[in-house]
């Protein structure tokens, strides 16, 4: 079983207006850089074996302080990129609703199944990102791995591993804090031995915990 620390990147220049970033390569704010530094301070005592990030600049810059404080190399995996929101990227929810009312309504009803115009479905994002975790489990079977990625992708993976319908991720997990840490053990053999297909495949040790309060 591998312990994963899943962290969203730091605050971006689109954060205040709640603009959908997706695949757009948006930079961090000064505050976001400070959040990344706090994550790096947490990493000092986290006994990490590897640090992996999405290729987008906001994720790589958020992982950089942890790389510096641990001395571990930064590994980039393109499969950890954020969900592609297509024509909605750079827009606020109100702007999306105004330009694409039917598509926005469908997305709000089933955000993992009905992508925004020209975008990627959340279910596709799960399918491309889950092999990353499985490969890391094989490489670090008793290890501790930090993944720096994105809010939507992390929430979708959480639902997948928790046996929850990913179409409910926006209601169940409305927000992830920037550079906060969600800690899971995966794969987890349940104590109940239940074989239900929706039974959790992970054990949750901490959800969305700011790095200055996250245990190592």
Describe this structure in words.
With 216 residues, the chain is an alpha/beta fold. The protein is 36% helix and 15% strand. The protein has 7 helices and 6 strands. The chain has a 6-stranded mixed sheet.
Summarize the structure in short:
By secondary structure, this protein is of the alpha/beta class. Helices cover 36% and strands 15% of the residues.
Helices and strands, with pairings:
Elements (H helix, E strand, L loop, with lengths): L1 E7 L21 H14 L6 E4 L3 H14 L3 E3 L16 H7 L1 H9 L12 H18 L4 E6 L1 H12 L6 H4 L8 E6 L16 E7 L7
Helix pairs in contact: 1-2, 3-4, 5-6
> What is the string of helix and strand elements?
EHEHEHHHEHHEE
The average pLDDT value, as a whole number, equals: 94
Task: Trace the largest sheet across and list its strands.
Answer: 3-2-4-1-5-6
Categorize the overall geometry.
globular
Reported for the largest beta sheet, the result is: 6 strands, mixed
pLDDT < 50 stretches: none
DSSP summary, beta strand count? 6
**What amount of the residues lies in strands?**
15-25%
Put simply, the count of helices is 7
Estimate the helix proportion, in percent: 25-40%
Roughly how many Å apart are the termini?
17 Å
Structural class: alpha/beta
């Amino acid at each position: 079983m591998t312990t994963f620390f899943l962290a969203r990147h730091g605050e971006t220049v689109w954060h205040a207006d709640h603009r959908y970033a997706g695949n757009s390569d948006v930079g961090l704010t000064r505050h976001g850089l400070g959040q990344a530094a706090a994550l790096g301070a947490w990493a000092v005592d986290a006994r990490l074996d590897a640090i992996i990030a999405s290729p987008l600049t906001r994720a790589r810059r958020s992982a950089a302080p942890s790389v510096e404080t641990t001395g571990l190399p930064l590994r980039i995996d393109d499969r950890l990129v954020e969900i592609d929101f297509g024509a909605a990227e750079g827009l606020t929810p109100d702007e999306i609703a105004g330009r694409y009312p039917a598509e926005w309504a469908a997305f709000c009803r089933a955000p993992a199944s009905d992508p925004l115009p020209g975008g990627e479905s959340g279910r596709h994002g799960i399918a491309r990102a889950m092999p990353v975790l499985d490969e890391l489990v094989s490489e670090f079977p008793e290890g501790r791995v930090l993944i720096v990625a994105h809010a939507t992708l992390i929430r979708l993976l959480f639902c997948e591993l928790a046996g929850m319908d990913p179409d409910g991720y926006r209601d169940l997990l409305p927000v992830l804090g920037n550079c906060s840490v969600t800690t899971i053990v995966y794969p987890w053999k349940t104590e109940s031995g239940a074989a239900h297909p929706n039974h959790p495949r992970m054990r949750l040790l901490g959800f969305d915990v700011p790095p200055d309060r996250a245990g190592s």
